[in-house]
Design brief:
The chain is mainly alpha-helical. Helices cover 44% and strands 4% of the residues. The protein has a three-stranded mixed beta sheet. α4 packs across α7 (185-199). It is globular, with a radius of gyration of 22 Å.
Length: 340
């Protein structure tokens, strides 16, 4: 949407929140590139009057907007773009919730949307985190609990309630709005599930009930600190021996180009040279290092990004910090005492 359209939509949403007397906070997606910047506030509180023409003024950030456009442009497939924007949006919402000391974050995903998400996530490599991505509650973030109170309602039921209760609502376009069925995996899965639902009315409920029975694998430590730096799911890539994952990684390794090193994301104390270059080998950070800190699904998204330097700096910084921590642990492993 254009900046003018975004202002109009924001005004409508703020007017709706004002009628319900709910406190409101709003932001723009490009502000996710400012998360972690000291002294920078990435959101604003809803004003008392939603008629202010300069309502988006505090959130105007041309540099961050250009970074977001560059990231989308550098992502080759529409499927990867949808997945990436979904992860960035969730990161921004969680950051705002943490800043405001909220302990619950509710999403209005209906049973239709979650049933589509179940099949789509499996196809895109997020099967290991399926229970968290589609269940009623998602507790992978220690400070904020994600809830989906609308998961047992159908989209038609919600639409009928809004119609009969005369509740105003706003529909926002997405990347695949008016796109052909084969535009992305999400779009294709949506057409598949809704087509089945038309002929077999129990399709959505069956998928949701089946997904509710799925739980993480027994060998995945729920208290592990090794989580994906993008979606915070437990890493599902520590597979030993012969597996489909190892085969996929080997094939990708044979076809990929030599990864380029990124600029140092660590503190300046490790950069001793006058030109701020690094003498420390721990500061050499490549796309492979970032991939090692991602779950399988996020790795597939990363492969579709031509230049990973366009990712938010906070993600790159966190990945490098974890890589350095693992390297340090391996260096001193022989001096550590076992728990036994």
């Amino acid at each position: 949407m254009s900046w003018k359209d975004r202002i109009l939509v924001t005004k409508k949403i703020l007017a709706m929140f004002k009628s319900f007397k709910f406190p409101c906070f709003f932001s723009t997606l490009e502000k996710v590139f400012r998360v972690g910047d000291s002294g920078v506030k990435v959101y604003a509180a809803g004003p008392s009057e939603a008629k202010d023409d300069n309502i988006m003024g505090p959130l105007t950030d041309p540099q961050a907007e250009e970074k977001l456009r560059s990231l989308i442009k550098n992502t080759s497939t529409l499927t990867a773009k949808e997945g990436l924007l979904r992860q960035l949006r969730k990161k921004l919402l969680l950051h705002i919730a943490q800043e405001e000391k909220f302990t619950k974050l509710m999403f209005a995903e209906t049973g239709d949307r979650l049933s589509i998400r179940v099949l789509s996530n499996i196809a895109q490599g997020f099967g290991a985190s399926l229970a968290q991505d589609t269940g009623f509650s998602d507790g992978r973030y220690s400070e904020v609990m994600q809830l989906r109170p609308m998961k047992d309602f159908r989209a038609k039921e919600v639409a009928a309630y809004l119609r009969f209760s005369d509740v105003e609502y706003i529909t926002l376009p997405t990347l695949t709005t008016m796109a052909p069925t084969q535009a992305s995996i999400d779009r294709l899965t949506e057409a598949f599930v809704l087509g089945l639902q038309h002929s077999f009315p129990s399709t959505v409920s069956t998928i949701c009930r089946t997904a509710a029975k799925i739980c993480p694998a027994a060998d995945m430590d729920q208290n592990s600190q090794d989580c994906c730096v993008m979606c915070e799911a437990l890493l599902d890539t520590s597979v030993t021996g012969i597996s489909a994952l190892q085969s996929s990684n080997f094939s990708h390794h044979l076809t990929e180009q030599e990864p380029s090193a990124l600029e140092c994301m660590a503190d300046s104390s490790c950069c001793k040279n006058s030109d701020k270059t690094c003498d420390s080998s721990s500061c050499v950070f490549s796309a492979n290092d970032l991939s090692n800190e991602l779950c399988y699904g996020c790795r597939l998204i990363l492969r579709e990004i031509d230049n990973i330097e366009s990712l938010p700096v906070e993600i790159l910084r966190l990945a490098q910090r974890r890589r350095n921590r693992h390297k340090m642990k391996n260096d001193i492993q022989e001096y550590l005492l076992d728990d036994e």
